[in-house]
Every structure is written in C-alpha cells, then in structure tokens.
Amino acid sequence: MKIISKPVNFLKEVRTELTKVSWSTKKELMASTVLVITVTGIMTVFIGIVDLGLSRFLSVLFK
Length: 63
What we know:
By secondary structure, the chain is an all-alpha fold. Helices cover 86% and strands 0% of the residues.
C-alpha cells in the first residue's frame, strides 16, 4: 500500500506548492519573450562577427 500512497502524497504536495507560485501575467510573459529573442539575436550576431574575425585572422596567420 505504501507504493501507491507515496506517489499520491507527492502529487498532492506538488499541487499545494503550485498554488503558491506567483505566475506571470500575459503582458510580463510577452515582454520577457521579446527580450530573450532580442538578446539571443544580438548575441548570435556578435558571436558570428567574432567567429568571422578570428577565422580570417587565423587564416592569415597560418598561410
């Protein structure tokens, strides 16, 4: 019987904890999503430029 009661108790505790979570509003979620996509795009461009610069530098260095 303990095999069944432990998972059931766990799920009850999870449900209780989820009621305590402070969920984001739709506006906050959209703002965070836009921020993450923007920062990811900026980092992609930055890393691409650094990679291109380093590859050209190393190709000149090892020619």
